[in-house]
Every structure is written in C-alpha cells, then in structure tokens.
Amino acid sequence: MIEITQFPHLLAGLNVASATLLAYGYARIRKGAKDAHRQAMLAAVGVSVAFLVAYLYYHANSGLAKFGGQGAIRPVYFTLLASHVLLAAVAALAVPWTLFLALTGRFERHRRWARFTLPLWLYVAVTGVVVYVMAVHIFPQAHV
Fold first, then answer.
1. Does residue 77 contact residue 65 with C-beta atoms inside 8 Å?
2. Is the pLDDT of residue 142 over 80?
C-alpha cells in the first residue's frame, strides 16, 4: 500500500500522464486517426478519475499541503494555485459533458466543446505539476 506521504508524487505523475494523453489524443485527431484519438482521450479520462479518487483520499487523510516559500513568490504561487483550483472545478464539469457528446455521436457539438475543454484540461494538468514542484521540491514547508 502506498504511504500517504507519497501521494503528492503519485498525483503529480497522474497529472503528467493525463497531459501526455491529452496531447497525444489531440495530435491523433489532427491527423484524422479517430480510433487512436478516442483511445487516448478515454485513457486520459481514466487517469483523471484515478487522480480525483487519489486526490480526495489524500486530502481527507492528510489535510492541506503547506507552502514554504516566502516573499514575492507567495502571491505568484497562490495566484497559480487559485487559478488551478478554480479551473479544475470548471474542468470537472466540462470534461464529462464533452465526453458525453462524443459518446452519443454528437460530434459537431463535441468538437465545439473540445476547443474549450482541451486547453482548460491541459492547463489544469500542467499547473497541477507546477504547483507540486513549487510546494514539494522548490519551497517545501520547513519542519520545525
């Protein structure tokens, strides 16, 4: 069983996997490879669901992470974190809707929604990794 202290690393890895699958899925649809696009996007959804389950478990059992940075970096970090959290909530609604449109064959509407959902979802995945690197590796909370 993974230790609760390892969850931030797991969550970052799931965000990297999600972003990679999203970029691959986008590249596949641009080439007209619909089956590969579908597989990549379904995998991205699966990874994101795994992320959400792990995220909720982690925060239910460990509380909120502490940011150790001081000075001018604090407003930078918290602005990035706020945009990440806010847009993650939007993505949590937009992704299932965009997926539903594709699965029900409403491809024109799916395409219109995906133009909004893909960059949003990528932003959330990438900023999740940036927040992780900043809070865990660059500016960890000092233990006294």
1. no
2. no
Packing angle, helices 107-132 and 7-30, rounded to 10 = 150
pLDDT at 48: 98
- Tell me if 104 sits within 8 A of 5, measured CB to CB: no
Quick one: how far is CA 36 from the chain centroid?
Answer: 21
Record the tokens describing residue 135, joined without a space: 């809070």
Q: How far, in Å, CA of 97 to CA of 117, rounded?
A: 9
Q: What are the pLDDT digits (tens) for 87-119?
A: 999 999 999 999 999 999 999 999 999 999 999
CA distance 35 to 25: 10
Confidence band, pLDDT 50/70/90 cuts, at residue 144: low
Residue with tokens 């000092």: 142
For residue 67, give the 3-state DSSP assignment: strand
- Give the DSSP letter string of 87-143: HHHHHHHHHHHHHHHHHTT-HHHHHHHHHHHHHHHHHHHHHHHHHHIIIIIISBPPP
Helix (H) / strand (E) containing 47: helix 34-62
Tokens for 133? Answer: 């690197």
The per-residue pLDDT of the chain, averaged, comes to: 96
